[in-house]
Amino acid sequence: MSAHPNGSQSQNPSQHPQGGPTVGGQMGGQTGGHPHHIHPPTYPPKLNTTMLTASTPAVVKRNTLAVAPGEPAAELLRQTLRSAPNSRPGSRSSSRRRTPTTPTTPRLGQHTIYTPNGSIDGSDGAMSPRAELGGIDFHRMRHGFEDEYNSEDYLAVLEQVFYMYYTDKRHETGGNPKAETQHFPLQEWRMRDRLKTVSAALVLCLNIGVDPPDIVKTNPCAKLECWVDTTAHPAAKALEMIGKNLQQQYETLSIRTRYKQYLDPFVEDTKKFCCSLRRNAKDERILFHYNGHGVPKPTSSGEIWVFNKNFTQYIPISLYDLQSWLGAPSLFVYDCSDAGNIVTNFNRFIEKHEQEAMEQRARDPLALNTSSYADCIQLAACSSKETLPMNPELPADLFTCCLTTPIEIAVRFFVLQNPLPSTLPMEMAMKIPGRLQERRTPLGELNWIFTAITDTIAWNTLPRPLFKKLFRQDLMVAALFRNFLLSQRIMRVHHCHPISSPALPETHHHPLWQSWDLAVEMVLAQLPALHAAEKGGQMYEYQHSTFFTEQLTAFEVYLSQGAVDRHPPDQLPIVLQVLLSQVHRLRALILLSKFLDLGPWAVNLALSIGIFPYVLKLLQSAAQELKPVMVFIWARILAVDSSCQADLLKDNGYSYFVQILSPTSGIPVGNASEHRAMCAFILAMFCRGFPQGRVVCAPPGVMNACLAHLGDENPLLRQWACLCISQLWDSYSEAKWLGIREGAYLRLCELVTDNVPEVRAAMLYALTTFLGIPDMSEDVMKIEQTVASHVLFMTTDGSSMVRKELVVFFSHFVKRNEEKFLVTAYEQLVQEREFLYNGGPRANGGEMLRTPGANGTALTRTTSNPASLGDGSAEFKQPGRYKDSAPRRSDGTIYAAVWQALLMISADPFPETAQAAKVAVDYIHLALLESPLGPSTHTLIDDITRASLKSFNLKLPSDTAMNEKARPESPGTTSSREGYFTSSLRRSASIAASLRNLALGYGNNTASGRADYAQPTKSGRFPNGLADKDPEWNRPPDVNDYSNTTTNYRSAKEPVSRNFQRRDSSEPPVIPIQSKFMDWSIEYFREPQMKPNEADEPGSVDYNQRLWRRTRNDKIIIDTQAQKERAVTSRWDYPKALFNNLAQPTRLLFHQFESYLIAVDDKDSVAVWDWEGEKLLSRFSNGNPVGTRITEIKLLNEDDVALLMTGSGDGVVRIYRNYESDKDVELVATWRALTDLLSSQRSSGLIADWQQGRGTMLVGGDMKVIRVWDAPREMCMSDIPARSGSCITSLTSEQVAGNIFVAGFGDGAVRLYDRRLPPRDSMVKVWKEHKSWIVKVHMQRGGMRELVSGSAAGEVKLWDIRMDSPVKQFLAHTKGMRNLSVHEHAPVIATGSTYHDVKLWNMNANDFGEPLTTVKPHTSFLQQNRSSPVTGLAFHPHRMMLACSGAGDNHISLFCCDAKGGI
């Protein structure tokens, strides 16, 4: 079994030495990995029952919280927000990345280079290292890259795999299990109403020697009854022999049934023994076999005949009476002519009985309920007006022989019907050696084959409920109906049509009968040799039938076709029979496991066919070779139906999996970790909601085995080891104390930095179930506090699923310590009132908070003073207001840190996580209002509300105010006029939403990382009294822009995650919140793991779509190659299109291959345009808070189905799918990428660069570090110090290996970083040639890999990272530059000025005196005389096309370099 989607192994990046280009003498000889070409351990792994794999152990660096003694409370949370691993773990043990395995396009020429996904040339999102290399002078390529790009070995390593990100199951489902309606409905497969045929009446009315009056027999005539010749013995003796034989024949079908012979009965005896049978059988089934060969045919009214005492008369018995005597349930067999009359009238009399019963109940409601007569089964030899065959070569009771001796009659029938001449006499054919019960003998094997064939015919032709009733409910009924199928085939040849009730369809034409004929013929062909050997002749070894081998092969072919349309396989009942044979058992189990892997529908089919007793019995087998496949089969069964817990307990079947789970046990398969993960899953399901299961699993070391597997390299095993522990100690105190003694909770806490989000979520789920030991002693309290302090680290986890599980943990912790959290919440409200009215308690401008650490020590954190309302003026210092200076009981406790974390998460960008946190916060606030502190709490809330409302200017801005307005907020800021408390009051009625500013007030504090922008006053002074003396060029270039936008925040639909359901606000909040993670995780074992992904299956819709996209991409790249030469010779003023965006565009982005242009405005709106069709495709709201705006947009997975990433000034990254559709747009993932934005009047917001090859996102902005986020892990892998006091304004990176990246800063500096070095040494070069705000720094993804920087002063410089000074430089604009864009493949730069003109420049030019072209974006008539800076500017990555927009205008202008530029 491969742990990777492509069967590769996990590699440690450190094992791949990489000599990079030399930068200032510091980079030469450095070694580092190229994680973008490492094959990650897939999550979830694909399974194959015959696979072998070996995986290199992953190096996982675990972070522990170091806490210093004596430091205050919520500092722990502050540290966790800033903590991140400083080195990249060696294994990319993250979620599954899909590899598009599309066919290889034939090479187009000597210099045609292909990307990892097959496209020619590079692409923005997923760049091929070979792209653009053909025909290029490598000595001219910048930065020394030509040495690496010329290395075939290096390129081969880089081109191994193309990955897709944010397409795993957790992103597709939002971390929620499928709705019940989407599950394949679980069918009831257990025989809840299993019956037994306990008694049988064998009624023979033969009257041998006397023919009935209405039957004229032929001469010669059939004379065998139960294989007894009635003419060879006296009548009485013959009758006795017939009765004895009939009983023996029935005993081969059911030995436990009590048989009673009634030979030529008379009417009185008949009533007597029928009533006696029902009395003794009680509610079980009775068999009534009737042979009427010696009496007249049944009457048209359905009467059967018996005799009087003297045998002088035939006496009729009404079926109505017979039903009354025998009752129900009963089984009737009629072997007589015109038997169809009995069946027809029998059903009519059943209706009469039912009607009488209803009338009786109406008259007397207390009357005893009689059993339903409808539960009667009938088998009749022929239809109405049909006479039984009298062929002397056949027995007279042919129907009875078919039902009770099917092999003998089938062989006789084959010999009689064989059209080929044969020397085999009938007597020899009827003497097949062996016993029916011994499958290795010829007769036993033939009987085995017959059982499999008839079972399969019934399975393929009958409805499932009818098959279950007739073939699985009662052994006697099942045997008779299997043989009844044979009677249908044989008797119709002799002009009789057996009928049954319930009626069965015709099966005589089923193709499996031909297989039966072949099996019979193979046995008969060997009979002479076998008989000769028995008589002492030449030894002969019986050649066994190939029937089962061939049927298994047919089943294998069915599986190889992929179970099209979920059509049930014809061979499934045969596979069930094969399990009885040790010869074929292993192969049958492997094929069965492949079938079960198809999904719940396949598991349901297997269970309904009766597979469960077999696999349950096999748990007693000690065969080593069966263990892997048995583990797989049981995992699939328990994933669909967990009701098997009692069955596993009954015969200690669970111990089979306990033994395999043990790390010391041997399992004969290469991928032992995945099979142990399945064992952990099986035991977790065994313990889930099953107290007896927990009790028996605790002693044999299941927990120790799971703890030992927490360090395993396989993420599935780590995940299910956590979940198995969770089910073991859930609601079971003894197991929790065992976990405490073993240190299980500490071992689980080590997984807070695990590489795989599913493992981190499973760890949280396990710790959540750990809470709740009834004995709340001080030791237990300390342990739970330790656990809570460890998981606080995860408040900044990049996975929304993990944060959601964290909220679930917090809700249990809050419920467990409700009284303490009431005090904490109250004191937080008191603190908030202090902040609003008095500026809050301060020590050197900050508040000292203390938070206990995991080991009893504490962390100290200094938080900046949230923006208090005013400066303590009389407006807020009302009489009676005082400073709450009393010491707070919650200070220095874990409860304060958890409460602050909950308040912060209640403003989480992921809607489900935020909603869950709001429920917990609402619950505490409502409980606080209803507690003895309720009146004081009401006063506090009123004060806070009053103060917040006073701080909000409710007046509409006048013209004067517009003219005199202060500098508007920069990205990442919020006006203090509208605090978060106030805005949330208007957005939601939730108390949590109203009070979230305790942790995340945009205008009231900065704990959230949303920086406040101190607004300069009209006089140019900031509120702190300092003059604004900063150089104009070092401010954000857009701070003085004029904006006439009329759009508002939330003006469009805000996308939510898939399966998100909004909580009904009228329902009271309830905690603890219940997790869905276990149900979500179980679904993994319901999904196919052996077959490839749909997109990797040739011929599938997904595959064809991906192939089409790749071909389309290739064509676009080929078509645009020739345009690059025209880019530097043609004018760029050809108008392509003009769009009215209805909002001022501030950032523009082209899709590489789709005709999409994405525009974002100066608030939160995202618009997607089809530039080719010149129409708006979608518009939605990004959801960033009021006062912030979108500061970054990128596209992920562009070579396939792209995702849109937005970054906003509040430090949040959001990723959307289906962004081009108003109806289908969904939020895939979101997290707070920057948690410590700094307050600054020179704010750049969030700046990011996406590296498709490595799956990493570099994020910077108003921070002292550049944060590296890993997409598969959804974790911050390192914080690289920016080494600058200024904000980061632009990021770019080399996209092939991804080791080198460059950052531009607000003070004009440009710094170069190498990720192969330790973070503190990563900065390897700094250029300070620019003296003003860096507008853009960009390294081309194709072409010559030019590195270009531009500053607000209008300077543009081209760099080589090996040199200390620019390669080229020129002044693009004399009065300031607002925007810069670099074409990814053509040597063209576009610069946008502060005065509404866009200039295009040739990078290869020696003289930059004149631009190639100057164009102006569209300007409305009213804005023509106003200075309108260029706000949006973007090249198409491949086409020679440019989009631009200006301030104060809503239009987007598209220009091409000539009429063909937009090909």
Describe it for me?
By secondary structure, this protein is α+β, with helices and mostly antiparallel strands. Helices cover 33% and strands 15% of the residues. The protein is built from 43 helices and 40 strands. It has a six-stranded mixed sheet with strand order 4-1-5-8-9-10, with helices on both faces. A four-stranded antiparallel sheet has the order 13-40-39-38, with no helix packed on it. It is elongated, with a radius of gyration of 41 Å. Residues 1-139, 840-883 and 952-1031 have low confidence and may be disordered.
Please tag this protein with its features.
4-stranded antiparallel sheet; 43 helices; 33% helix; alpha+beta
Write the layout of secondary structure elements.
Layout: H1 75-82, H2 145-149, H3 152-158, H4 169-173, E1 197-204, E2 224-225, E3 228-229, H5 235-251, E4 258-263, H6 267-281, E5 285-291, E6 304-307, E7 314-317, H7 319-326, E8 330-335, H8 339-363, E9 376-380, H9 398-404, H10 406-417, H11 426-429, H12 442-461, H13 464-471, H14 475-493, E10 499-501, H15 512-534, H16 547-560, H17 572-578, H18 585-596, H19 600-609, H20 612-617, H21 627-640, H22 645-650, H23 654-661, H24 672-687, H25 691-697, H26 702-708, H27 715-729, H28 733-742, H29 744-749, H30 757-770, H31 778-791, H32 800-816, H33 818-838, E11 846-852, E12 858-864, H34 894-905, H35 911-930, H36 934-950, H37 959-963, H38 980-987, H39 991-995, H40 997-1000, H41 1077-1082, H42 1101-1121, H43 1123-1127, E13 1134-1140, E14 1145-1150, E15 1156-1161, E16 1165-1170, E17 1175-1181, E18 1190-1196, E19 1203-1208, E20 1212-1217, E21 1226-1232, E22 1246-1251, E23 1256-1261, E24 1265-1270, E25 1275-1281, E26 1288-1293, E27 1300-1305, E28 1310-1314, E29 1323-1327, E30 1334-1339, E31 1347-1351, E32 1355-1359, E33 1368-1371, E34 1377-1382, E35 1388-1393, E36 1398-1402, E37 1413-1415, ...
Parallel strand pairs: 1-4, 1-5, 5-8, 8-9
Antiparallel strand pairs: 2-3, 6-7, 9-10, 11-12, 13-40, 14-15, 15-16, 16-17, 18-19, 19-20, 20-21, 22-23, 23-24, 24-25, 26-27, 27-28, 28-29, 30-31, 31-32, 32-33, 34-35, 35-36, 36-37, 38-39, 39-40
Helix pairs in contact: 9-10, 9-14, 12-14, 12-15, 12-17, 16-17, 16-18, 17-18, 18-21, 19-21, 21-24, 23-24, 24-27, 26-27, 27-30, 30-32, 32-34, 32-35, 33-35, 33-36, 34-35, 35-36
